[in-house]
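Hi there, hope your week has been kind to you so far. Do you reckon you could talk me through the fold, stretch by stretch? I've dropped the whole record in just underneath, so have a look:
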Amino acid sequence: MQDSVVPATRPAAGILRGPYLWVTVGTCALVFLAAFESLAVTTIMPLVSRELDGANLYALAFAGPLATGVIGMVAAGNWSDRRGPAVPLYASVALFVLGLLIAGTAVSMSVLVAGRLVQGLGGGALTVSLYVLVARIYPGALHPKIFAAFSAAWVIPSLVGPFAAGIVAQVFSWHWVFLGVVGLVVPALLMIAPVLRGLDSEPSSQSSPPWAVGRLGWAGLAAAAVLGLNLSSGVRLPGVPAASGALAVAAVAVALLAVRPLVPRGTLTARRGLPSVILTRGLASAAFFGAEVYLPYLLIEQYAFSPTFAGLTLTGGALAWAAGSAVQGRLGTRLSHRGAVSIGAVMVFAAVVLALATTALGWPAAVAIAGWISAGGGMGLLYPRLSVMTLALSSKESEGFNSSAMSIADSLGGALALATTGIVFTAFTTTAGSFAGVFALAAVVAVAAAIVAPRVTVKTP
């Protein structure tokens, strides 16, 4: 119940002590399972596509959840601001499980994609609901630690998810990669249920925000733009070589138009404070993930790495991310928010530049690999602090909106990066030029993140 949680005015216990133990375990388990499912699907989708004869829907199986997730983020944010996080959390888990069941029992690719769309809707809403729950349950002193735990819960699946999914698909069936997660989601939710009781028991006040139907419409438009961005890199029209680029530019314009009502005012112009927090999150995501998907490809194509050893590079980055998250959590207020975000952004920029230099100058692969470990550490420093700042700069009535804005920045940042880097990669005639173009674009985005990062705090007179 609500009174079972230590009030913020009392000394805070650790996130794994006292009244926070089961809440921490349950919330981290939900984050872990959502991340595991995302990575596991990447591993088994070639097998699924071959078995269901769904090559034409392959891209949509990945882009669809990202698109519907934007709608789920906005809906959960508005719902949480009106009534608290409990009911949105239950609803998001129900949608996530429903999507898993549909995908896990699919006998055609179209049904599987439908399940993925539902799964994405629930997954997007789940992320926002958990952020609002953290704001309502944990005192501010524990926010750096719980968000560090969330980051670790996202990173750990990258170490075991692909391998475990491959084993399950080979020994049993790819269906169980979806269905097996269902049996784990329910216990995780039950761990949180005692704390959720009473959070939404109070009637909404007269000042509760109305249902933002307009924002949901803009979210739908942003979702369509995200989908278009992910699909545009594969468009090839005879006699129109620039078709994919034109579609991407149009999708970017639509995405920027649609995102304005979904984020704090001044986000796109890097206004100091919360707007720059949200913008930095989006830019950092775009730079990191836009470069990350091409790094193993570079090592395989240019340096004759095996897929297994190329994948270990990402594992190193993931471990560094977890370590960076743990370091910033332990340092607490000894490391300022501005310092953590600025250092992290510079580390990501430096890593992307090293990848670019490795490609353009023919440096040893070890340079790019070491750089990517640095990038993971930088993301571990800045990601949790941006989450902490988002909640710290939010009122109780705006926690849902601001949390959804941060999640939307992640999704749109990643989508923009993946779409535009895909177009850049295919625009060059040589493999080396393609990789250099991708890393150069990521470096431009990374330097933008480093420039905006110091603006996350407001100057005091």
Notes: Residues 212-262 form one domain.
